[in-house]
Write a structure and sequence with these properties.
single chain, 455 residues, alpha/beta, eight-stranded mixed sheet, four-stranded antiparallel sheet, 20 helices, 12 strands
Amino acid sequence: MRILAFDALRAVGERGAYANLVLPPLLARAKESGEFDARDAALATELVYGTLRRQGTYDAVLAACVDRPLRDVDPPVLDVLSLGAHQLLGTRIPSHAAVSATVELARCVLGDGRAKFVNAVLRRVAAHDLDGWLERVAPPYDEDPEAHLALAHAHPRWVVSALWDALGGDRTGIEQLLAADNERPSVTLAARPGRSTVDELRAEPGAEAGRWSPYAVRLVEGGEPGAVEAVREGRAGVQDEGSQLVAMALANAPLTGPDRRWLDGCAGPGGKAALLGALAAERGAALVAAERQPHRARLVARALDGNPGSYQVVVADGTRPAWRPGSFDRVLIDVPCTGLGALRRRPEARWRRRPEDLDGLVALQRDLLRGALTAVRPGGVVGYATCSPHLAETRLVVADVLKSLAREGGTMVERIDARPLLPGVPELGEGPDIQLWPHRHGTDAMYLALLRRTS
């Protein structure tokens, strides 16, 4: 299982892959060959995700135990050391077993010489537990709060700063959020209206209804979604509850005039489009699902295949619309972003993103929102959504676009209070926008602003 975990880390490090895409096929092949049982698969999954989540903390510990800069350590060696560090500092595996098993892994994948180096380093790591190491490598909170939290909770410092700003500066809140980012979430399914029901999905072993969405079911015991018949048949799909709530809020937002044509302007990979399409069909509306990248458009088409009602999948760029202005009654634009709201699911993303990524993303987000406001008719509604709580990608994008439109004196827009559209969901803030949080709502940190075009 450790070789499998090493292979997954190498794919993430060498090819820029995502663990949630790389690991399942590796586990499936191991199970089919008879090499793995459920316990082995669970341990391999923990080794991969735990090592990736805590990478920054483990790098600081390893740097204190290696006699050279970490950048001079070959990446495969560093992956083995990180796997060993996680077993020593982040699991209940006994120290002697963690060191022995990791050294044996090093012999298999690196050779005897490097295995001796791994053995020496891990014996230094084993000298202290995680708290003991944090006392040595992290500055005290009172001296540098952001650096302390960054090492204690394994987030880059700039991410800690951005999340803290979005939360409003509360220490308890930021520590709870960072801790929640390091917990692997349960798999959440969406029962697509007209095709599946929550009762059907709840009949699965270890399944329970979601907390907020009437379409959500959680596989709380780590169930495999591919084993669920409704998922295999496309009648249900894997979708975070926060994403379901965003789609619901847009679908239920009040508008004036007809309600016949809906647009999902950034539809890939298709989860929201499938739910929106089903909700539209219930009202006799048609959905256009647009995606700029052809391979992602194919994923959208697959997600929508068999959906009730009328829908169309098109390859189109929301910043250069392929439709006439004012063509739609409802528009969802779930924009590309840093993904800081989904760090529970993609732990490696926190180490890949850089602050400078924001410039290009924010410019694109503004353009997409302007395109969406052009696509909707007067009286219609646009939902601007993003899986990031970063203020630069959320409130500031909306504020900048609305200010620029006001200066131009053309398109007029009013904001809709989105909070009443999510009845029963607590702690939604002062509005009118919605910001969901992992530590408060158990969802990804989805943001939603609802805007009605008035002229």
